[in-house]
Amino acid sequence: MSDITLERVETQEQIDTLCSIAQRVWHETFDALLPEGQTDYMIQKFQSDAAVKDQMAHQNYRYYLAKLGKEYGGFVGYAPWYEGKAEMYLSKVYLLPEARGQGIVRVLFNWVEQEACKEGLSKIRLTVNKRNTHAAQVYAHYGYETVEAVQTDIGSGYVMDDYVMVKHIWQPGESLQELSREQLLQLINLYSKNWLAMDGVWFQSVERKRGMEEAMFHDVEAWKRFTVTEARRIRNFLQLPEHPGLEGLAQALRYRFYANLSHYTLTMQGDALLLRVLECPVQQARTRKNMGLHPCKPAGLEEYAGFARTIDDRIQCSCVSCYPDTQEEGCACAWKFTLEQS
Q1: Rounded to 5 degrees, what are φ and ψ at 19?
Q2: DSSP code of 92?
Q3: Is residue 330 included in any domain, yes or no?
Q4: pLDDT in tens, 58-76
Q5: Same domain, yes or no, for 159 and 196?
Q6: Backbone angles phi, psi at 152, to 5 degrees
Q7: Are 110 and 188 members of one domain?
């Protein structure tokens, strides 16, 4: 597998090699499937020197030769944005008999998918002769589904009698577009719970293996980095100015992952903003499992102070109450934010 390389077809020598491979594969495959003379006609029309050059120059075709070690074993040809559509047309996946069974075809199909992904295309389409059952089975193995049958007049009394096969490439977030508002809200809640579960899973793994002290060290280090990333993305999402002050912070705090998981209050008290988290899912879960409470104050200081500084670098954070330094009843933890006076 590691000896398989792909070369983009650009030179005359590469075009000659491609056409030679195509001629061998076409005659081997289609002489028994097509009327007499049609194979030669289609080679001349679609895979001759002139045809290949025209496809690359005017039809956005890209050809790559597949090399196994020092020998060429086949090629792939495709056209992104074919006919102006947001799809890729997979024109050719050809292998010489002696190159089959060595992993080249998998490399070629994977390559095409990566290229479609780079182009932002959600569909790869191909056509296969109805009588070419072996090729159709290979395409099906790699996830292509038959969507229709087509007959195409290619001139000189010849017709291509094909199946159209398609493979869908899901784009990031594409499935969300199918959901209702209610479903999206439910999914956001689910994602938030999943995030919290992952946070707990890794922490407890370290806790069991190395003890609470080392687990807390990694917890603090993780929050130093994550809270900045979360705050920066929320700030950009809300399009907050450089110094949005405590009002901007109050707005941003409402969009943290954690804000979807617990009840909380945000109160302006003079020149300070007070955040009180009324219940903590982490401590509730540890209590249910008969585990000791999480000594979260060190991590909480990094979490809230780092978040606030990223929203506005003038904001300072102090802990009002957080285990093990619990000073206030009626909440899981409480944090005070003030604006540094210049």
Answers
A1: -65, -35
A2: E
A3: yes
A4: 999 999 999 999 999 999 9
A5: no
A6: -125, 120
A7: no
How many residues belong to the chain?
A: 342
Q: Which helix (H) or strand (E) holds 74?
A: strand 71-80
DSSP H stretches of helix in the chain? 12-30, 38-46, 49-58, 104-118, 133-141, 181-210, 212-238, 245-253, 281-288, 297-311
Please, which residues have CB within 8 angstroms of residue 254's CB and are 6 or more apart in sequence?
Answer: 266
| Same structural domain, 140 and 254 | no
How many independent structural domains does the chain possess? 2
Confidence of residue 82 (pLDDT cuts 50, 70, 90): confident
pLDDT one-digit tens code per residue, 121-148: 999 999 999 999 999 999 999 999 999 9
Around Cβ 16, how many Cβ atoms within 10 Å?
Answer: 13
At residue 65, what are phi and psi to the nearest 5 degrees? -85, 140
The answer to whether the CB of 163 falls within 8 A of the CB of 149 is yes
For residue 259, the SS3 value is helix
Instruction: Give the domain CATH number at 159.
Output: 3.40.630.30
Q: Answer for the pair 300, 287: CB distance below 8 angstroms, yes or no.
A: no
Q: In this structure, are 267 and 147 located in the same domain?
A: no
Burial of 281 (0-12, 13-18, 19+ CB in 10 A): middle
pLDDT digits (tens, 9 = 90+) for 301-330: 999 999 999 999 999 999 999 999 988 888
246 and 331 share a domain? yes
Distance linking the first and last C-alpha atoms of the chain: 64
Q: Is 99 helix (H, G, I), strand (E, B) or coil?
A: helix
pLDDT tens per residue across span 91-125: 999 999 999 999 999 999 999 999 999 999 999 99
Return mean pLDDT, the chain: 95
